[in-house]
Amino acid sequence: MFDMDGVLIDSEELWDEVRRGLAADAGRAWPDGATRAMQGMSTPEWSGYLAETVGVPGAPRELADTVIGRMADHYRRELPLLPGAKDVVVRLAERWPLGLASSSPRRLIDAVLDAAGLTELFATTVSTEEVAAGKPSPVVYEEATQRLGTKPGRTAAIEDSSNGLRSAAAAGLLVVAVPHAAFPPAEDALALAHARVERLQDVTPELLAALGRA
User: Fold this and answer.
1) Whose C-alpha in 105, 129, 190, 204 is 20 to 30 A from the C-alpha of 136?
2) So where are the chain's domains?
3) DSSP string of 90-133?
């Protein structure tokens, strides 16, 4: 089970740039902790946060449409796939069915996987838009695991952020941490991982098989 932002694509800083830009356009200061707070939130959650906590004028749905549109424009110009992302997905898909549990909206999930040529390799994909809550709630991983038809204790999740690690662990999955360099996870979240690697390329079939045996 893959996360997308920060695992397959280097988009965490881009999300931050776009949201900060929206606040700056409205003359609103960026609150301390806002960046980390929104990591893992579903679209309704982070757009509500922009409106209510950051104070960006407009209805949350309108703010979401603006941010997602700007993200889509960036992806059309240049898809920020992380090094080795496609190879890792292909390699793991040769051995196991794959799922994706992402905080990105459906529109961006589909656009990224299509542009990367990875759509057919995923048996299921779930956006936090489609479940009751965003990460760190476990519901997106619970839904993705159910759709995939696997048991949580026999399913590995590859995550980079604090809220993502907490979400996957709370769902009972085997958690592999690939910490994001710009936004490293908190130590308590990192401690939930069953394995930690420095690069996505280090997530190998051998590593995941060993976790399953353990």
Assistant:
1) 204
2) 12-77, 85-213
3) HHHHTTS--EEEESS-HHHHHHHHHHHT-GGG-SEEEEGGGSS-
